[in-house]
């Protein structure tokens, strides 16, 4: 348990943080959302291998289902999700946890590439965003979105804008009340006000989805 805690870093964002204040000066609607939601914690998992494995497991699953499967895996490997603990497991053991055969093959490919020294998973922090994405998308089952989630939730990068994230697209359409544009267009337009701290508004937009705010009016000042 102690090791797990050592691997966790928490970044706290609120309207008083310098980066957040700068964004709120430029973006009135985001300022209203930040004021409504308040502090946001970004929990960064510094165990890069674990983050990649759990990201693969969580693809196309609800957060609840993914958390259940990941919890089963942690119990099976006694809390130590690393190459050694994963490699000794049989495919059937992973399948019994609820991991699809396809995702098992993705995890195996990740392990193989790391063991073959195709990249050093512990040195990814030394690369630029684009370099990390290029390296990770060579792994089977890891696309640009998964690599971007790794940049945010493992490396703690504040300059990541996952335009392809459907939750962000829906939340941006809601917040900015843009019925004549699609979600990607609204994200691209609004992100000009966030540069270079794209991650922070994304966290607030994701939180809006989690809190089911999208079912309410986006006229935040008039409704809260």
Automatic annotation (TrEMBL):
Gene Ontology process terms (BP): base-excision repair, AP site formation; DNA alkylation repair
Leading EC class: hydrolase
CDD domains assigned: ENDO3c
UniProt catalytic activity: Hydrolysis of alkylated DNA, releasing 3-methyladenine, 3-methylguanine, 7-methylguanine and 7-methyladenine
Annotated protein name in UniProt: DNA-3-methyladenine glycosylase II
Record-linked InterPro entries: Alkylbase_DNA_Glycosylase/TA, DNA_glycosylase, HhH-GPD_domain
Record's keyword terms, sorted: DNA damage, DNA repair
Classification via PANTHER family: DNA-3-METHYLADENINE GLYCOSYLASE
Example of a GO MF term: DNA-7-methylguanine glycosylase activity
Positions of the HhH-GPD domain: 57-209
Classification via SUPFAM superfamilies: DNA-glycosylase
Enzyme Commission code(s) on record: 3.2.2.21
Keyword Lyase appears in the UniProt entry: no
Pfam families, per database record: HhH-GPD
GO cellular component entries: cytoplasm; protein-DNA complex
Family that this chain belongs to: Belongs to the alkylbase DNA glycosidase AlkA family.
């Amino acid at each position: 348990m102690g090791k797990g805690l050592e691997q966790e870093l928490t970044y706290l964002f609120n309207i008083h943080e310098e980066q957040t204040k700068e964004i709120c000066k430029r973006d009135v609607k985001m300022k209203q959302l930040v004021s409504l939601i308040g502090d946001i914690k970004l929990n960064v998992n510094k165990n890069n291998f674990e983050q990649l494995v759990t990201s693969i497991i969580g693809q196309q699953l609800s957060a609840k289902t993914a958390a259940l499967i990941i919890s089963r895996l942690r119990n099976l490997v006694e809390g130590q999700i690393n190459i050694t603990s994963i490699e000794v497991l049989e495919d059937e053991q992973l399948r019994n946890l609820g991991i699809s055969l396809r995702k098992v093959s993705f995890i195996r490919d990740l392990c193989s590439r790391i063991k073959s020294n195709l990249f050093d998973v512990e040195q990814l922090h030394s690369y630029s965003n684009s370099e990390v994405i290029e390296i990770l998308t060579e792994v089977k089952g890891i696309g640009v979105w998964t690599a971007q989630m790794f940049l945010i939730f493992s490396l703690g990068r504040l300059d990541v804008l996952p335009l392809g994230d459907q939750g962000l697209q829906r939340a941006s359409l809601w917040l900015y009340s843009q019925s004549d544009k699609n979600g990607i267009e609204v994200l691209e337009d609004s992100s000009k006000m966030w540069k270079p701290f794209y991650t922070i508004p994304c966290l607030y937009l994701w939180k809006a989805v989690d809190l089911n705010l999208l079912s309410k009016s986006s006229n935040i000042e008039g409704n809260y």
